[in-house]
């Protein structure tokens, strides 16, 4: 497989300070203090220099998703495959790569218009995680399979078949589950793994989304850490998009909380780990074993 993990997200925010307060005070991520000429702030969850770059903007939305390739050979082969298929790929400058703490990267759009940044050679600085909420670690690695990435992301893709073919045939992901959520008129969500044990790193939602991301997920190691985050979110006045529940396909026990500006964050634990070489894809007609009652603002 070409892609090892979902490495980072670049997020535009109309109130970077509020996003940072949410990221540190509610999610328990670490403020990764870095100089940035464009005023971005950075959130850390492991030995990577950052996993989330929060950039000043007029609106809140996902700017780009960073996908990690295992080495330069795999990275270049992926770029060649994309260009041969007619996709426009722009290799970033050395200064742009340094800002992302990677050796090289290239940006492109998937068929749905989502911006991806394919990179290799993340520059780790091994600064220990110090969570302001006392979280001992986030689930970003596995002893057997190594890096699991920051978690997962669900991206909008109205033409889901074309987008799925792009990810599976060109980016190099594999289908793990096809979900037909009940009561949504045949709309489906395709879940895909990269070359690690996380059940899915990327999912495609067969519809539009104004913020460019349906949700992002980060995982903690225990139910207690999840419960304490729920208490912090309640104390901070954050909106719970979904109550506590457990998903069918990846076994994740989680809640959904809205960040300032409206991006949904799934905060979970106990996600399913798979063997990406042998896992057999499933088809689901239910999203949840229990819970996850949704409360959409203004609906």
UniProtKB/TrEMBL annotation:
Keywords: Aromatic hydrocarbons catabolism, Dioxygenase, Iron, Metal-binding, Oxidoreductase. Its cofactor is Fe(2+). This is Glyoxalase. It comes from Candidatus Marimicrobium litorale. Residues 5-121, 149-270 form the VOC domain. Belongs to the extradiol ring-cleavage dioxygenase family.
């Amino acid at each position: 497989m070409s892609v090892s993990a979902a490495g980072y997200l670049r997020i535009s925010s109309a109130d970077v300070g509020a996003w940072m307060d949410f990221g540190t005070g509610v999610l328990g991520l670490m403020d990764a203090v870095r100089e940035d000429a464009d005023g971005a702030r950075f959130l850390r969850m492991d030995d990577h220099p950052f996993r989330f770059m929060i950039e000043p903007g007029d609106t809140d939305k996902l700017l780009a998703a960073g996908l990690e390739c295992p080495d330069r050979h795999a990275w270049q082969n992926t770029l060649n495959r994309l260009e041969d298929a007619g996709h426009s790929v722009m290799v970033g400058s050395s200064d742009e790569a340094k800002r992302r703490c990677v050796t090289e990267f290239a940006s492109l759009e998937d068929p749905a218009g989502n911006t991806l940044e394919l990179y290799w050679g993340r520059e780790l600085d091994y600064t220990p995680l110090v969570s302001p909420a006392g979280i001992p670690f986030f689930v970003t690695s596995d002893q057997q399979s190594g890096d699991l990435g920051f978690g997962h992301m669900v991206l909008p893709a109205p033409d889901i078949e074309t987008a799925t073919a792009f990810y599976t045939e060109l980016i190099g992901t594999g289908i793990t589950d096809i979900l037909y959520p009940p009561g949504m008129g045949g709309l489906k969500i395709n879940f895909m793994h990269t070359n690690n044990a996380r059940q899915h790193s990327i999912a495609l939602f067969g519809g539009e989304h104004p913020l460019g991301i349906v949700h992002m997920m980060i995982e903690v190691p225990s139910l207690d850490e999840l419960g304490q985050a729920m208490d912090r979110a309640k104390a901070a006045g954050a909106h719970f998009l979904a109550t506590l529940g457990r998903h069918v396909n990846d076994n994740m026990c989680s809640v959904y909380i809205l960040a300032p500006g409206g991006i949904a964050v799934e905060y979970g634990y106990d996600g399913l780990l798979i063997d990406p070489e042998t896992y057999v894809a499933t088809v689901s007609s239910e999203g949840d074993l229990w819970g996850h009652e949704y409360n959409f603002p203004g609906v």
